[in-house]
Amino acid sequence: LIAAVAGHCESAERAAVLSAAAHERLDDSSESGLPQVLLRDLFTDVIGVESRTTTALKAIHQGVVMPLSFVLKAHTRLLTKDVKERFGWEVELYLSSANRSATLTHVRRERSFGSELYDNFMVELRTVVTFEGDEWTQPQIETHMHALAPMMQAVDGRIRTEMQ
Asked: Sign of the C-alpha dihedral, residues 120, 88, 66, 136?
C-alpha cells in the first residue's frame, strides 16, 4: 500500500526510494522488531511525516467522517447507532499520477435507534477530502448527509428541517 500510494503521490525517483525502503524494512520485520515500530520508524526516518504519502494515508480513519455524526446528533432529535456490518464504514482512495492528487471518500452509515415514528431508517454520512496542487496543506472537503430507505423522504425532510 505504501509503495502504491507513493507511486502516485511522489515523484518517480522519490517513489522508487520509498518503495525500496518499505520493502526492505518490512520484509525484515520478523527478525528486527514489531511491525508497528518498524512502520513508525519508516515514516519518521524515510518517508517523512509531512510527505504527500503520509498525508494521504493519515486521512484514512473514521475521525474524518465522525464530525457529521456529531452534527446529526447535536442538531436533530434523531437517535442513531453504528451499522456494524462490513458496509458500516467504507473508504475509497483515488490517486491520480497525472496531477499527483489524492481523493479520499469516507462513507459511514448509521441506523435508527429508539422507539419513535421514524424508526427503521439508515443515514449515510459522506465526507470527500481532496488533496491537489503543489501544497497539500489545504485540502478541499465536501460533506453530504442523507437518509436511506425506508422512510427516506420523511427522515430527509426531518433532518433538513431540524438542521436549519
From this structure: negative
Provide the pLDDT for residue 114: 62
- Virtual CA dihedral for 30, 36, 37, 39, nearest 10 degrees? 90
132 is written with which cell numbers? 491537489
- CA dihedral sign, ordered 139, 144, 145, 150: negative
What integer is the mean pLDDT of 81-96? 87
Which H, E and C letters describe the chain, residue by residue? CHHHHHHHHCCHHHHHHHHHHHHHHHHCHHHHCCHHHHHHHHHHHHHCCCCHHHHHHHCCCHHHCHHHHHHHHHHCCCCEEECCCCCCEEEEEEEECCCCEEEEEEEEEEEECCCCCCCCCEEEEEEEEEECCCCCCCCEEEEEEEEECCCHHHHHHHHHHHHC
Give the whole-angstrom CA distance, residue 18 versus residue 56: 15
Type of residue at 87: F
Comparing 56 with 156, the larger pLDDT belongs to 56
Tell me what percent of the residues of the chain surpass a pLDDT of 70: 80
Asked if 110 and 81 touch (Cβ cutoff 8 Å), the reply is yes
